[in-house]
Amino acid sequence: MNTLKKIRKREVTQKAGKPIYLDYQATTPMDPRVLDAMVPYFTEKFGNPHSRNHVFGWEAEDAVEKARTEIAALIGADPREIIFTSGATESNNLAIKGVSRFYKDRKNHIITCTTEHKCVLESCRNVDQEGCEVTYLCVAKNGLIDPNQLRETITEKTALVSIMGVNNEIGVIQPIAKIGAICREEGVFFHSDCAQAVGKIPLDVNEMNIDLMSISGHKIYGPKGVGALYVRRKPRVRLTPLFSGGGQERGMRSGTLPALLCVGLGEACTIAGREMAQESERLHYLRDRLYKGITEQLPEVYLNGDLDQRIPGNLNFSFAYVEGESLMMGIKNLCVSSGSACTSASLEPSYVLRALGVSEDLAHTSLRLGIGRFTTEDEMDKAVTEIVTQVKKLRELSPLWEMAQEGIDIGSVEWAAH
Amino acid sequence: MSYSDKLIDHYDNPRNVGSMDKNDARVGTGLVGAPACGDVMKLQIKVTPEGIIEDAKFKTFGCGSAIASSSLITEWIKGKTLDEASNIKNKKIAEHLALPPVKIHCSVLAEDAIKAAVEDYQTKRNEGPDAADSKEAEKARLSVG
Question: What CATH class has B5-144?
Answer without folding.
Answer: alpha beta
